[in-house]
Amino acid sequence: MKDLSVVIPVLNEKENIDPLLKEIRYALEGLDYEVVFVDDGSSDGTPKEVREHAGEQVMLVELRGNYGQSTAMMAGIEHSSGRYIALLDGDLQNDPQDIPLMLEKLLDEDWDVVAGCRKDRQDNVLLRKIPSRIANSIIRKMTGVHINDYGCTLKVFKRDIAEDLGLYGELHRFIPVLAKLQGANITEVGVKHHARKFGKSKYGLNRTFKVMADLITMVFFRKYIQKPMHLFGTMGFISLAIGLLINFYLLLLKIMGHDIWGKPLLILGLIFLLGGIQLITIGILAEISIRNYFEGTHRKTYKVRRIFNGQEKALEHH
Q1: Which of 171, 180, 123, 118 is nearest to 149 (CA)?
Q2: Contact 100, 109 (CB under 8 A)
Q3: Are 62 and 39 a contacting pair, CB within 8 Å?
Q4: pLDDT tens-digit profile of 23-35?
Q5: N or C end of the chain: smaller count of CB under 10 Å?
Q6: Cα R_g (the chain), whole angstroms
Q7: Spatial CA neighbour of 289 closest among 216, 224, 212
């Protein structure tokens, strides 16, 4: 088992492989580490380039197609063997020299995750910097996880936290939220950032809608994953109450001799009434699903950080 695994998802980064490995070897000299490249369906010969460097310290996990960065990260974590995991981009914009400092902080101060925050970011202002700042602000406010730079790939984890992230889709941006769901202690440090020298960026404004959709999922996971009835039930009872009030008002009008048939208010009242019943039903079904999930898989609804046995030594719980 290595001390550190550096997981690098790559997509069409052929020209970056050799200089990136040189930087990693220089930065991690003296550490017991491995580099796990995950090729996410490259078409430019990236896998061939990585295979030329493969050996005791360099591994290639070649996926059958393009599954996305999150899935590639998860594949790399699952095929790694290090006690600690570092995530790194394959475009040379992250600096491997930051990894030892982040690992040292994680070990010395007993953090579960040390996230990088890009200082003096070398990206296009309109297409990357401004949208990223807006997205970071929205994510912080909606999830309650206060990280300044959600988009920085460079992070160092304890292995048990990394293995339970459950990454897929576009969820790599929400790694701090996923780690927090496990009760992880997270801190952030400033890291260097370089302009891209080779290849083309895979990011664009089209990712915005995907990120916003995933944000809704993250907010649900963060606040309601163990109590979905609190969300659906609350909305359902509010809708049901509004529907009952509208229909009670229309009933009074009917008793007083007014014609209520065909009124838009009648239709609105029925929509609120039926919507409330439906939301409450969804809440009950979600509660049953969550209960079956935890009981059927024997998963606990909590995470234990340590168990003290009365001695000075703390037993790590994995």
Answers
A1: 118
A2: no
A3: yes
A4: 999 999 989 999 9
A5: C
A6: 25
A7: 224
Cβ atoms of 56 and 46 within 8 Å: the answer is no
Q: Is 316 helix (H, G, I), strand (E, B) or coil?
A: strand
Residue 313 pLDDT level (bands cut at 50, 70, 90):
very low
Stronger pLDDT, 220 or 198, i.e. the higher one: 220
Residue-wise pLDDT tens digits, 118-158: 887 766 556 566 767 777 788 888 888 888 888 889 999 99
Q: Exposure string (b/e) for 84-115, b if CB count within 10 Å is 16 or more?
A: bbbbbbbbbbbbbebbbebbeebeeeebbbbb
Q: Which residues pair with 191 in a beta bridge?
A: 118
Of 74, 49, 55, 52, the C-alpha closest to 63 is 74
Cα(97)–Cα(94) distance, integer angstroms: 9
Amino acid at 260: I
Per-residue tokens: 177: 């939220």
- The neighbouring-strand residues paired with 189 are 116
pTM of the model: 0.73
CA-to-CA distance for 52 and 178, rounded, in angstroms? 35
Q: In what order do the strands lie in the sheet with 113-118?
A: 58-62, 33-39, 4-10, 84-87, 155-158, 113-118, 186-191
Reading the block at residue 225, the tokens are 């994953």
